Amino acid sequence: MPGFSTRAIKAASRVPDAPQPPVNVPIYATSTFEVADATELAELLEFARPGHSYSRYSNPTHDALERALAELEGAQAALVTASGMAAIHGVVLSILRSGDEILIPHAVYGGTIALARSILERSGIGHRTVDTTDAAAVEAALGPRTKLLWLETISNPTTALADVAALVELAHDRGVMVAVDNTFATPALANPLAAGADVVVHSTTKYVGGHSDLMGGAIIGSAERVAAAREVVINAGGNASPWEAFLALRGLKTLALRMERHSSNALAVASALEGAPGVASVRYPGLASHPQHRLACRVLRDGMCGGMLAVDLAGGRAQGERFLERVRVAVHATSLGSVETLISHPASSSHRQLADADLAAAGLTPGMLRVSIGLEDVEDLVADLVGAASPG
Ligand SMILES: Cc1ncc(COP(=O)(O)O)c(C=O)c1O
Fold first, then answer.
1. Is 207 annotated in the active site?
2. Facing residues of 371 across strands?
3. What is the CA radius of gyration of the chain?
4. pLDDT digits (tens, 9 = 90+) for 27-63
5. How far apart are CA 258 and CA 276, in angstroms?
6. Using CA positions, which residue lies closest to atom 14 of ligand 1?
7. How far is CA 156 from CA 13, 129, 365, in A?
8. 79: nearest Cα among 204, 212, 255
9. SS3 letters across 320-359
10. How far apart, in whole angstroms, are the C-alpha atoms of residue 11 and residue 1?
11. Is 109 a pocket residue for ligand 1 (Cβ < 6 Å)?
């Protein structure tokens, strides 16, 4: 008879049969999977047969989230990653080689610029930035080395929109691929692949998860594109955690409902803030004053514009700091896309990498606040934010 330790390890490792399928996807908290022989393991590691070998390569909980995201974005395949940045890194390095160039919007998540300035630059991959709301400027900026055009459906933090279909046409004519960060819009509001994009990424940390309790990312597109990105992510170790994949799956179930409420709350708050004492301007695609309001109505589902707004206070940086100290319902924290309203100051947080001139090119002012409107009662939000903005 084996000793106690041997029996305990064997006894506690038996996976139960579950003849009735569980209603929720289980968390497969396992780093590795038992195989019958060396051939099976070798084939699994090459993805030459269905199944799983090691959770850096694949895992059933990841698989469930990947299938769900692929279906909701209208794609063949998806890959989930440790964070949105791991997804962006995986896509970029699976498409670009030393000597190539990526074209990035002026108005873009600061981490994407930081990646271009650090890892990409060191790898011999160049970047240029351009105003992607101006198709002629994009056309002029597509150079002979450009292999990838990066877009955000709704930009972080200025809420500039990308006319994905029009820009895809321009880029494809020049043999340039198009990747779209769909984090702000989510698949509930927009499907960039349907507009012709080659690949979509998400930070699932944000709206997909929706509760500020996970870090994750996703790469979504054709089987070929996702396989190329998987090779980078496996080798760089940017794989997701099954625990966080479970949370993202749970978030997906209520994404549509949450996006409806984020959108209606944000529209009400944006309308109340526009013209309120102490507020210089509000940028929200749902406002008629937004320069791309008509595009938003055309490309975002059911006219819903999501929960993100950019607020410029009349008193600049000093008033911005006072605003952050005054809010009581909203929380001063970085990140976005959650049930609670989150406010941050991009110039000192998500876009701290940018000098004042780059901030201006990105349409950001030093005093601009990024507001991620949550699901609280709208009257409480309006009172909190209009009150905090008031110069008195
Ligand atoms: C639009 C956008 N893309 C990507 C990221 C990066 O995501 P993560 O923080 O999950 O790496 C962020 C983070 O704020 C973001 O706002």
1. no
2. 309, 343
3. 22
4. 999 999 999 999 999 999 999 999 999 999 999 999 9
5. 27
6. 335
7. 45, 15, 13
8. 204
9. HHHHHHHCCCCEECCCCCCCCCEEECHHHCCCCCCCHHHH
10. 14
11. yes
AA letter at 284: Y
Q: List pLDDT tens digits, range 217-276.
A: 999 999 999 999 999 999 999 999 999 999 999 999 999 999 999 999 999 999 999 999
Q: Distance between CA atoms of 113 and 127, rounded to whole angstroms?
A: 9
Residues in the chain: 392
Closest ligand 1 atom to residue 335 Cα is 14
* Active-site residue, selected from the candidate residues 109, 147, 198, 312: 109
pTM above 0.85, yes or no: yes
- Contact 210/260 with Cβ under 8 angstroms? no
Residue with tokens 């409902």: 257
> In whole angstroms, what is the distance from residue 183 CA to residue 372 CA?
12
Rounded distance from Cα 86 to ligand 1 centre (Å): 10
Q: How far apart are CA 97 and CA 125, in angstroms?
A: 7
206 has catalytic annotation: yes
81 sits in which H/E element: strand 77-81
| Angle at 154 (CA atoms; ends 152, 159), nearest 5 degrees | 125
Q: Identity (one letter) of the amino acid at 285?
A: P
CB of 204 shorter than 6 A to ligand 1: no
28 is catalytic: no
Three-state DSSP at 44 gives: helix
Q: Is the CB of 215 under 6 A from ligand 1?
A: yes
109 in active site: yes
Query: Is the separation of the CB atoms in 87 and 240 below 8 Å?
Result: no
| 186, 306 contact by CB (below 8 A) | yes
Query: Tokens at residue 323, please?
Result: 């605003």
Adjacent-strand bridge partners of 113: none
Note whether 206 and 183 are within 8 A (CB). Answer: yes
Strand order from edge to edge, sheet including 368-372: 279-283, 308-313, 368-372, 342-344, 331-332
Is the Cβ atom of 85 under 6 angstroms away from ligand 1?
yes
Q: Which of 181, 198, 312, 384 is catalytic?
A: 181
- Which atom of ligand 1 has the smallest separation from the CA of 85? 11
pLDDT bin (cut points 50, 70, 90) of residue 350 is confident
